[in-house]
């Protein structure tokens, strides 16, 4: 069925066939993960799981066949993701590579980097981190100071990146660096550079979260040489490329399914005779249903070649609001579970500490709402 003739809420037969396959895969392979491990959701990491997904053909599944992908639809990928996210599958290792770095290389380095890296991503063997944010820059990427200086045969990179998710296990980083001055356009002069993490001059320092986990890192780039063909796309066009890339980062089901384990715990504990619990959980499920429709709509837009940037920002913003509300609702509805050491208690504690970050990753709430206001003509 042509995506152009599908309405939101409808899925073609191949999507439901795939859903059955993914559910069978999850039943076989998810039993070894505890409820707390599942609560980490897509930020959880298991390289062995990534390889299994590669064996199933679920990494790079929408990429063109001529570029090494399977040419499947965005709706099929959406179904695969929502099924695995709903059960808390540990997909953090390959996440960025599959979601946005593969498409980036296919589009902007089709003949140079893509032939080497795409097969690795497809097998679940290439983990790629994204070097955007910097100290003192916040969400203002135009103020980055990491510099790429042209030298014979390539580029010399110097600077620092922070909040770099997964840098400590990544094989590669795609870094946004300044290769020329801003001029009148403050977004001009930035380029994307592909860097092997084992190159001399690359060092990674952990940023330990309040959960005691290590997801974020600071990456120091000290006279790191990369060859000419590691420039991704055009020199000075990095901002445009990053803007295109962010539609992948903000549009998926992960933007409202990060806290599903806590919802499942609440459903298991709920008393059908308790009106307060029934009403509160019913409202949550209604919000989930709305966001699912919106997120599926974005997959349809991408299938039809439409620009989902505005819609993706709305889903990301509203998804974060939903996820951040769950711990408070759980505390209010099930106070007797506080401190009892149960799975419910452990999952609730984990997400209470993790939830503040949900409105930071992928763009802060202020940035997203600025994009939404501009898209609606309000600024």
What would you say this structure looks like, in words?
This protein is an alpha+beta fold and 379 residues long. It folds into 3 domains: 3-126, Acyl-CoA dehydrogenase/oxidase, N-terminal domain (Butyryl-Coa Dehydrogenase, subunit A, domain 1, Orthogonal Bundle), CATH 1.10.540; 129-236, Butyryl-CoA Dehydrogenase, subunit A, domain 2, CATH 2.40.110.10; 252-375, Up-down Bundle (Butyryl-CoA Dehydrogenase, subunit A, domain 3), CATH 1.20.140.10. Helix content is 45%, strand content 14%. It has helices spanning 13-29, 35-39, 47-56, 74-86, 95-108, 114-122, 238-251, 260-269, 275-303, 309-333, 343-354, 365-375; strands at residues 128-131, 147-151, 154-161, 172-178, 190-196, 202-208, 214-227, 231-232. It has a 4-stranded mixed β-sheet with strand order 1-4-5-8, covered by helices on one side. Strands 2-3-7-6 form a 4-stranded antiparallel β-sheet, with no helix packed on it. Helix 8 runs antiparallel to helix 11. The mean pLDDT is 89.
Helices and strands, in N-to-C order?
A: HHHHHHEEEEEEEEHHHHHH
Instruction: Give the N-terminus to C-terminus distance in angstroms.
Output: 39 Å
How does the overall form come out from the CA principal axes?
globular
Largest sheet: 4 strands, mixed
Q: How many individual domains?
A: 3
CATH C-level class of the largest domain = Mainly Alpha
User: Radius of gyration, rounded?
Assistant: 21 Å
CATH arch. level architecture of the largest domain = Orthogonal Bundle
Discrete helix count:
12
Looking at this structure, what is the CATH superfamily of the largest domain?
A: Acyl-CoA dehydrogenase/oxidase, N-terminal domain
